[in-house]
What we know:
Blueprint: H1 2-31, H2 35-61, H3 67-93, H4 98-129, H5 135-188, H6 194-215, E1 226-234, E2 237-244, E3 248-253, E4 256-262, E5 267-268, H7 271-280, E6 290-294, H8 300-307, E7 312-317, H9 321-329, E8 338-341, H10 344-349, E9 355-361, H11 375-383, E10 385-398, H12 405-416, E11 420-424, H13 438-441, E12 442-450, H14 466-469, H15 472-479, E13 485-487, H16 502-506, H17 508-521
Parallel strand pairs: 6-7, 6-9, 7-8, 9-10
Antiparallel strand pairs: 1-2, 2-3, 3-4, 4-5, 10-12, 11-12, 11-13
Amino acid sequence: MLILYYIMAFLEGILVMSFELIVARILTPHYGGSIYVLTSVLGITMFSLFLGYLIGAELVKYNNYYLSELFLVIASSCLILLNFISDGLIKITIDLPLILGSVLAVFSLLGLPLIILGAISPMLVETISNLKIKSGEASGKIFGISTLGGISITFILGLVLIPFHGIIKSIYYIGVPSLLISILIYFISNYGSLKSKLLNIAIVTICSIGVLNALKVNENLNSSTFNTIYQSDGLMGRLEVRDKGDNVRFLTNNGSIQSKIAKNSNSSLLLYTHVIGTLGAFVPYIERENALLVGLAGGSIIQELKSLNYKNIVAVDIDRRANHVAREYFGIENDSYVFVEDDGRHFLESQKEKYNLIIIDVSLGEQQPYHLFTEEAFQIYYNRLTDNGLLLVNIIDVTDNTKLKVTNNIGNSMYSQGFTTRLLKDFYPIGMFKPTDVEYHLHERILIGTKNSGNLIRPEFEQLSPCCKQMGFSHSLVNHFEQHTYLKNGVEGEVYVDDLPIMEFDNYKKEQLFRQLKELKN
């Protein structure tokens, strides 16, 4: 029987880490991937295991350690149920404040199974101690084997299952074998009669069906106006490509629009991409050699850069799916750019190439990865930019200029590293959005950084891309650049640094507003 107990310990470690990783990914589309969600997941994980260890220790006192086999069956069942009950539980907590809502959502999904799993370890230690193995040796082996199981599934989930198969399939790939093995171990164990074991399994099954019926939410991904043609769950969120009508195609990540094109021309319907295209024309025509785009999305900015005659375009994105989506669904030609799967900052640190244009476009709804916006990051961008080069930073921030805390602090971080920094004024026409639209309160804000004095060379009209030539805003921006920008050289505020994730805290109110508006609109 000793080998069975070691298998149980290994399986317990697998289930603990599976719950932790999978629940974090399930909550990201609804609560974001900020430090608050990460803290909730880690904190609830440790608290639940703490309660489980105490419960397990109490059960051992009363010689109930034989329950470990049944607990493993229940925990495996809970993992499979995540597919069905997560939407219902999230709907209960989604309207609460971000921190409270995320804590309650995490506890509702993680609490019970991790308490059960935590109780297993003390019972296993007691069980094998009764086999004449010293308690220290028993606890060391149980916790060591459990940890090994957790390590194994962490790499398998993070590097293989979730990136290539998505969250739903990953749950089944782990949950179903775990449940079958747990049931097998339960029935071949020496504790209890066959009748009592069958009764316990029946009770677990009935309870699972009851929970399923109470909380299952049938989500219809396709509405009458949208047709989902691609969907993928991964570590970087849920990617979806949707068509609206005959000629509009969207790319969304966790429900936030990343790209929007007219299918008949593959031309972007998002104004900010054309604004970036117009700004890219301020790099002298003869110097448009190397361009770097950090954050690919559907590749609309690639189209703009090709039209501007940039010869060597590199697109860096940490999510490999973006490359597939851009080429397969958004008409980006294979030879238009070189794709690199990497973090943008790491990529620039690891090579010495200089670029005439660097574009940082990695906003996902209300979130931005803060390590790309610290003064240490801007020092790297500065060193990788040619003397007449241009740095464009696109972020999502509030439309109220008096509350641009994040934008101002990023501008300060740019300025601290030698950039002459300007903020482009709001380029969306007045009245374009309704007060109920997310974009009315939050949308793109573009910072412009140069290494020289900031007096950019005005491009000639014929140097603009074909689509930008037809836009009145592009003409006005080219001819009256200073009137369309604010100088952001050392304004009031802070400088973001690697050591402190201040940007995460500055984003808190913005995240709350974004979630409230998105849920209201949905």
